Amino acid sequence: MDPIPILTLEETSKVGPKTIEKVLSIFPSFKPSDPSDLIEILKKAKERFGRISVPDIQAVTNGWNKAHEIWEHSQEHNIHIISMVSPEYPKCLSQISNPPVLLHVRGNIDALNKDCIAIVGTREPTEYGIDAAERLGALFAKRGYVVVSGLAKGIDAAAHQGALRANGITIAVLAHGLHTVYPSKNKELANAILKNNGALVSEYSWGTKANRRYFVDRDRIQSGLSLAVFVVETGIKGGTMHTVKFCKEQKRILVVLKHPSDLIDHPKTSGNAQLISEKQADIVFENDDDIDLVIREMKRVKKELLNQDKKKNHRKNSIQMTLNLGKKNNKSPHF
Description:
alpha/beta; Rossmann fold; 9-stranded mixed sheet
């Protein structure tokens, strides 16, 4: 569907993700002709769900104009904008509890629906961690998996580079709009990802600057796109632990690298040691032979997610049929 109506809602004050999801549940392909029409759609949603704030015409007009501006910039820079009701939206990501309503994608949009593994870790790794991340990125790329990470310095960058050196596809999930690359030192790496049929992905629109909260939100997308999350190296309080939390919530496979004995007590590997000792890791990765176990478990998760997707689509179709019957004789705006 045309993403501009959803972009308009995102850019309109007093309209949040929950409201947008409610609108989409009733009108999955709504096409307002102007801001006034969009207000009527919001009023219809309020009638059904209640507790929805309907903004005034000025707020919606401002959002409408901003959405068209974002769309024009995105078109100029070859950025796709896909909604959660689009057939191109990644199926794995659609199964999480709070999927992004819109995804902004630069590069190979088809990569989002391939089998992915997130390889994550600290920005300040040991030499062993850097080498391991590169090796693992290459290892999984050679087995046909798309490597997902966050383009940060350290483990993320090494995982991307490993996948590229194996001529594999890799996806970078960013915590800001696609008008820039952060950190700027990884612009060359971002270009290499695009040249090798990979993608840059964000839930944030053109011009949105990074902030701390966005990095946490980004972590749920890294996990949500993937069948497994591989923790290469992290401290106990590292940002990687957010991705671990999302991995568990989303029922993905948590793989944790076991470090050699001389690094087990190192502060930069303390998170790995804790995840292993507390038996939070689904797979403790001790050597490269363990890749077959990881792949076997990822295939199992993929099968479960596909079954969930079928059930979800069946429920969605049933609800839509009921709604269509209910409004059959009612006059409504352009939906």
